[in-house]
Every structure is written in structure tokens, then in C-alpha cells.
Known about the structure:
Layout: E1 2-5, E2 8-11, E3 55-59, H1 64-75, E4 82-86, H2 116-123, E5 129-130, E6 135-138, E7 143-146, H3 149-158, H4 161-164, H5 176-191, H6 193-199, H7 203-226, H8 237-256, H9 268-278, H10 289-299
Parallel strand pairs: 3-4
Antiparallel strand pairs: 1-2, 1-5, 3-6, 6-7
Helix pairs in contact: 1-3, 1-8, 5-7, 5-8, 6-7, 7-9, 8-9, 8-10
Amino acid sequence: MGLLVDGKWVDQWYDTKSSGGKFVRSASQFRNWITPDGSAGLSGSNGFKAESGRYHLYVSYACPWAHRTLIFRALKGLTDHITVSAVHPDMLDQGWHFATDDQGATGDTLYGLGHAHSIYSKADPTYSGRVTVPILWDKQRETIVSNESAEIIRMFNSAFDTITGNTDDYWPETERDAIEEVNARIYDTLNNGVYKSGFATTQAAYDAAVHPLFDTLDWLEDRLSQNRYLMGDKLTEADWRLFTTLIRFDPVYHLHFKCNRNRIVDYPNLWAYTRELYQMPGVAETVNMAHIVRHYHYSHESINPHRIVPINPHLDYDAPHGRG
Ligand SMILES: N[C@@H](CCC(=O)N[C@@H](CS)C(=O)NCC(=O)O)C(=O)O
């Protein structure tokens, strides 16, 4: 694993020394928005009009951030309008790569490139920073629109509505402040909290991450005992952002990232809620459990130096959820 420096690949693991053993996630750098008419969005420049067939997603099925974008592509009827390439689950010294010798790994179906870092240097030959997925690519301008999943799902939520006729709204205007508040806690302590626990290189950094993580799961269990979804009766982006962490928790985070006070199956409401979301139309097809389990255990040499991929608990995501 590594990063690009002035367009050149440098093999280097996360630097936790300068932050007292803490894992600090860097900010995404491509921040343009697709809009219905191509005008500028909340950040970045204009010129990215919603058009069928123009955009492409590079994803990893293992990655919870990329997973959000696949879910929104499915929920919003965008599968015929936005194409996808999926990387190989193993992220090794050259970062994400496009080998096809694993079921579900498609290769780079646009350019036949070998590595995701080549997509970044194609967009910007002087790019410096991490090479992350998801990448939302514009085939027309041959550049990256966005590499920030939180913003990509908001574009997908509405920019293509006149093309698809799908007006389902997971980011309703009147709920935005309330959604933001819930997202902030879940992002910091849970979506990113599992990484902060798992990648911590001091006991203090681990302790500082893992306790707030379980406080949040306890809080969510209580909230979901009184509400069907996080914001009440209406399913919103907050639920989908939570879902991609919940579905990885028992098979990966519990053991690999040492988040082992409880499992999701130990929480009746969280576990039933995870199954309900999994069973919504189009969602199960976005979950590739083999890539999820393989990626983390095989790729993170500093945590799992022998790259042994453990047997998995059997979890029945199709069991009746009984909610509602
Ligand atoms: N802020 C980004 C984070 C994406 C991200 O960190 N993806 C991980 C995979 S789960 C990645 O590609 N990591 C490679 C690296 O950090 O070098 C987003 O949400 O889109």
C-alpha cells in the first residue's frame, strides 16, 4: 500500500507515528458535483451534467465507502446509466489493482489499466495523495469528478432524476440538519471508528476509539428499538451510511479490528435492521462477502502478517427481519 507523490507511486503504510499512534484519514481531493444542468455543485467546478452513459464508478466491493455508492446506484435506478469497474480484493504494495482472477473483480473495463493509481495520474499527472475508492470518473472529459463517497451518494440521490424518473429522496431538505447530526456521530465513532480501533498502534489510541464505538452501538440499539429507521419512518442516507459498516462488523471488524465487546448479532434491533436493509430490492447484489472478508485479512499485513483469512461466522441475512 502507498500513495502518489507528484504523480509517482511511493509504497508506504499509514503514518501513525506523527499522530501518537492514531489513524488519521486524509480528506478527498476531487470534489466536483454532477448536476442536472452541469452548473457547479456545492464545491468544485461546473461542466459535469447528468447524462446517461457518461460516468463510470471504480469501486472495491470490500470498501464500505465505495459500497455506499453502489447502493445508491442500485436504489436510484442508475445501473443502466452508470457503468462500474471493481478492483481485485487484495490491496498490496501497488495499492488497488485490476487483476480479474477473483470472482467479481472486473478489471479496468474502460482503459485496461493495471492499477487504480494510474486512474488518478491520468486525471492529474501531478496528483499527490492517497489513491482511494470510490472514484467517480467522467468518460467525456477523462477526469475524476469526485473521490468522496459522502458527496457521490448525494449526487446520485437527485442529479439523474429526470433521466431515471426515480424521485426517491434519501436526503430530504427538511431533515438535513438532523441527518447531519446523526451522520457526524456515526462517521466519527463507527464508520471511521472501526478503522481508528483497528489501525491504532498504541493502547491509548485503541482505547480512545473502541469505547466511543460501543457507546454509539448501544445508543443506536436504543434508537432503533423505538424507530424503524434512524430518522423515524423514513429511510434516509443516514441508514445506508450505517448499513455498510454493520454488514462488515461481525465478519471483519469484530476480530480483525479488535472491536470485540459485542457482535451485531448480540443487538436484537441492530441485527434485525441490518437484515431489513439487506433485503431491500437491489441491495443484496451490492454485497460481496467474499471480497469483504478476503480484502481486510489479506491486505493489512501490519495487523495480520501471515495473511491468514479466517473462517467466517454463518450469518443468515435473509432470515425474516420482523420489523415494521
Ligand atoms: N473519504 C473517502 C474514503 C475512501 C477510502 O478511504 N477508501 C479506502 C478503501 S475502504 C481506500 O481506498 N484506501 C486506500 C488508501 O488509503 O490508500 C470516501 O468516503 O470516499
